[in-house]
Amino acid sequence: xxxxxxxxxxxxxxxxxxxxxxxxxxxxxxxxxxxxxxxxxxxxxxxxxxxxxxxxxxxxxxxxxxxxxxxxxxxxxxxxxxxxxxxxxxxxxxxxxxxxxxxxxxxxxxxxxxxxxxxxxxxxxxxxxxxxxxxxxxxxxxxxxxxxxxxxxxxxxxxxxxxxxxxxxxxxxxxxxxxxxxxxxxxxxxxxxxxxxxxxxxxxxxxxxxxxxxxxxxxxxxxxxxxxxxxxxxxxxxxxxxxxxxxxxxxxxxxxxxxxxxxxxxxxxxxxxxxxxxxxxxxxxxxxxxxxxxxxxxxxxxxxxxxxxxxxxxxxxxxxxxxxxxxxxxxxxxxxxxxxxxxxxxxxxxxxxxxxxxxxxxxxxxxxxxxxxxxxxxxxxxxxxxxxxxxxxxxxxxxxxxxxxxxxxxxxxxxxxxxxxxxxxxxxxxxxxxxxxxxxxxxxxxxxxxxxxxxxxxxxxxxxxxxxxxxxxxxxxxxxxxxxxxxxxxxxxxxxxxxxxxxxxxxxx
Amino acid sequence: xxxxxxxxxxxxxxxxxxxxxxxxxxxxxxxxxxxxxxxxxxxxxxxxxxxxxxxxxxxxxxxxxxxxxxxxxxxxxxxxxxxxxxxxxxxxxxxxxxxxxxxxxxxxxxxxxxxxxxxxxxxxxxxxxxxxxxxxxxxxxxxxxxxxxxxxxxxxxxxxxxxxxxxxxxxxxxxxxxxxxxxxxxxxxxxxxxxxxxxxxxxxxxxxxxxxxxxxxxxxxxxxxxxxxxxxxxxxxxxxxxxxxxxxxxxxxxxxxxxxxxxxxxxxxxxxxxxxxxxxxxxxxxxxxxxxxxxxxxxxxxxxxxxxxxxxxxxxxxxxxxxxxxxxxxxxxxxxxxxxxxxxxxxxxxxxxxxxxxxxxxxxxxxxxxxxxxxxxxxxxxxxxxxxxxxxxxxxx
Lengths: 509, 397
Fold this sequence. Notes:
The structure holds 2 protein chains of 2 kinds. Chain A is of the alpha/beta class.
């Protein structure tokens, strides 16, 4: 006897259709074999399914059982095929009839008591299950609805599935859910006292999509500042939200109530992160990493120099292309990885190093510390600002700064200008278009020439400064020429001399 | 090596002296011990003999003597003493042996030996062998050592440069170690003075490595200029690497050569305080430039003031300590373009302390674009220096 039931399995952030085929024959010793590239968690399905069937007042056939997960070339991972397997087995054993489950696909993990549990990546799996009505755990309904308009049957247990299939009760329909609760408020910029330069750098980073590096001693509030950045960015567009939701669902990063990720994600992996945790991968699962989870949002790397150098170097390609390609022997997967990179670091191990004469480290320790950062990575930071602890007086007397909402309005306006230029944000402006969209007035030109001649600015840095100046002018409401003030501000937000050579030692020269 | 019985020439003696100073792990103490009552060539034969018992008599029973015996014997193999001297002569480096380390009384007075600096002959621990580039006449007249931290502030570097310039212009030789930071700034000041006045006193550099091993490499140009136009002194022969222990030894020579030691900026346990110790042993005046009590780079120099050193506000204070006329001090001419009104208020906000953009924004209350434009103007005109994210006000030069 044969049972065929459609389901789906996840590879990266893509769902792939899988047909669970079960064949049962009476001859020979009772046995249970799973073929078709199952991984360990898939193979363990046998014990879960047997317990679940027996808990659901059905019978486990003491016969020769062969399970094939088609197509056999795709590696199947996880427990999401449990429910489909149980149903296929009952069909093959004749306890259910094939026409009773025709047109239905099944998705869900089984508990030993027969309960149906949610699986990761439901939203990604919907694509693969086109054309079927879907039986799934109730917790997954909100997520599944994001994946398209489809007939959904939320079920609590295998017993309920059997009863519905036999016609003892109707297939349930999703309860129309209330409008999801509004997302919890994000940390607000108004909490930051003083620190006008750091606040402004955040605004420019948000408006222009410029990667931001904050330098400063411990306790200067770098983490607090970075966590305010999501509140300055516009909410995700429907397409961006779906993309972020797919990644968060597939990676098991957790979804907000209502299922849809609408706020720009903020990911802050610890500096002990491995390169797989950061860029994604794994042997079979091909799980998206932190940088993909930060897509359309912010990746915050605190203590940048404490990350392993090869981990940081793995960021360079995604920073350039917005996509990270993870290749393994079994498969190659491309994850979206378009994020705003915000990093914070101390200038040296003692943390006091940037203040002239303030460092207590030996030369060797300084050089070793800064050598951990490669030049090409540092080069990606258009904005590099020195952040110092605000003084006690600032904390008490400084007027509360603008709220996030006020800044976000200017940011949205600047982003709209960038979109009119045909790019997502000014950071993506191609160099050859700068003369057209970011023309300089005479004073600004001569300032940049001076900076180039004195060696403060490199040729590559020139383009980056112009893009930042473009954003500053946009925020300033000056949509045409870049003036002296815009370029001077852009230069002042670009601290140079991060690297083995401390430039003040050359000051005397 | 000459054959036994053949008289040893002064050239060979000098070559042996240089070769001895270049043996591995030979510092001032061991070199003096090897040359005590022995001519350099004789000491060379002894040192490279490979016989531990002989060395034990000279050096005493120190640990690791066996390894040392072998290392010296290996290093001595195939060395042609005349060629060693020729190499130094070709590089313009004179080998000078302390009169007490030439072997015998008549050698001490022998004019064939290059003369040894008067200033060091009677020192507590005089270098037995000294390698110099430039004429010894540069040691005549008053000498002031300017020392300080390698990680200085822009203000400290500015003060060191000003002191170097004005002391040199007043005819005082500036002795320094050619290190990064204060040392280099002081000598750059001397070079400023030399390009402005013909009678400025040339610089005296004291280094820890061989004359051909420039350290730090960023000072290559400065090193060469000091060697060409002043006097460059080392205890190490050509090819010697700047090993860590050579710097304290160098500091001793800096102190020994100075009439007054001026510390511009020193961290709480900075290496320049070692120079100060050596100066105190030799009863040489130590003076210090007061720094901000908030500046870590001035913690050591301020401590010296607290302990009773004379403060240095400008070169005049040093000239008074040397017993020279204050009147020789020259006035600085301000040739920078006057700052704008906004620029002036930004300059005042510095208070001669390093400040970040944020500090200045908070202190002046200016909007960022306005502040950025003002700072760019100040930087371009030379009123302000930039170091990473920090800005520093600069004095007239």
